[in-house]
Amino acid sequence: xxxxxxxxxxxxVGKSTLWNRLxxxxxxxxxxxxxxxxxxxxxxxxxxxxxxxxxxxxGWEDDDPASLPGRMRAQTEAxxxxxAMALFVIDSRxxxxxxxxxxxxxxxxQSVPVVxxxxxxxxxxGDAGLYESFALGFGDPVALSAEHGEGVADLFExxxxxxxxxxxxxxxxxxxxxEERPLGPLKLAIVGRPNAGKSTLINRLLQEDxxxxxxxxxxxxxxxxxxxxxxxxxxxxxxxxxxxxTAGMRKRARxxxxxxxxxxADARHAVDFAEVVVLLLDATLGLEHQDxxxxxxxxxxxxxLIIAINKWDVAAEPSSLFNGIRAALDEGLAxxxxxxxxxxxxxxxxxxxQLLQAAFDIRDQWNRRVPxxxxxxxxxxxxxxxxxxxxxxxxxxxxYITQVGARPPRFVIFGTRLDELPESYRxxxxxxxxxxxxxxxxxxxxMLRSAKNPYATKE
Length: 459
Prior knowledge:
Elements: E1 4-8, H1 15-23, E2 41-47, E3 50-56, H2 68-79, E4 85-91, H3 98-108, E5 114-119, H4 127-132, E6 142-143, H5 152-163, E7 186-192, H6 198-206, E8 224-232, E9 237-245, H7 258-273, E10 276-282, H8 289-300, E11 304-310, H9 318-332, E12 341-343, H10 352-366, H11 372-385, E13 397-405, E14 410-416, H12 423-436, E15 445-450
Parallel strand pairs: 1-3, 1-4, 4-5, 5-6, 7-9, 7-10, 10-11, 11-12, 14-15
Antiparallel strand pairs: 2-3, 8-9, 13-14
């Protein structure tokens, strides 16, 4: 395990900018508006050869514990449990504030080593705040500009005495023997409209209040990835999962706020990263047009899709609701007819094992490869049962098929006059691939390639 470093500070001092700098990617949302970060975000970082896990936290605010800022502060306090050290970030241009002093008092009561970071210290505008920060009692502050990368070497020197003894031993890489490796952790993204219960569902799976939840819609902003192990009741063995929580996606016309636009864009990127996407519906609202748009986006990106109906414990007439959603999905998502539909309750935990089982099963289909010989036997049988049309009396010739990739499954058909092949016949072949070759309801890509005519006139 890498030693864990937690970034702590009041809102808008540049914590997420520093997190992005140390991780080496702009993953955390950053904006001039304070309070952008609400959940803890973890990332693997390396600074001049020193490796550690860096944790971004919500801005520390002095509010009622039951309020949203108060619950965010509780998440920040929880992040320090088990950490190797804390980076206490202040805004050197703004100087010390009473909230900075309150955070300092709290940190002095903890057993975790603290490095004081005076951010936004580029130029001379931050000198006054830098000198003031000595009064906090954490020794020499590190003058840093997370935005421009200035002072990173000084930060490394301040962190080295604490983290160097905790560095993991170097692992010796094994030689590749050419055998197929088992699949890695399941990358599972939870998406849906605001307030569908995405964060609550992940907290239920983890059996802890890992993500911020509440009655307010749109609490989640950043897409948060959490490593977890689920025990499969079918085998009683742990299986690795990367859970990805995302911001709620409203209709585009309703998204006016810049920060919400950034959060929705981040959620769409999370779909691209995932292997399996769970679209979470609210049983009290049913299936709406926006849900179908979110589902269609996941399918267009080639992700395996599962629909989960949350709040099943309070659903009215559950049987008719389930059947109605099933019928609407088969009509609205005809390209993946039969997509798995699971009823769950994030509050009670009902259906969560079935959801994970469906996710692993559909990933297996998403990764499936069919040997070329067996694929072409099916192809010959499909054409014998339903020969391709002959527009103008000239038959379209389909010679053979091959699978060129998985994740999602991709196939190429070679033949002649393929530009005249009707879309209905292409759908016939795709549906046959899904139904008879074990691909279920995953997206299947089918491309057509005509052989070049060697006697064609060359210009």
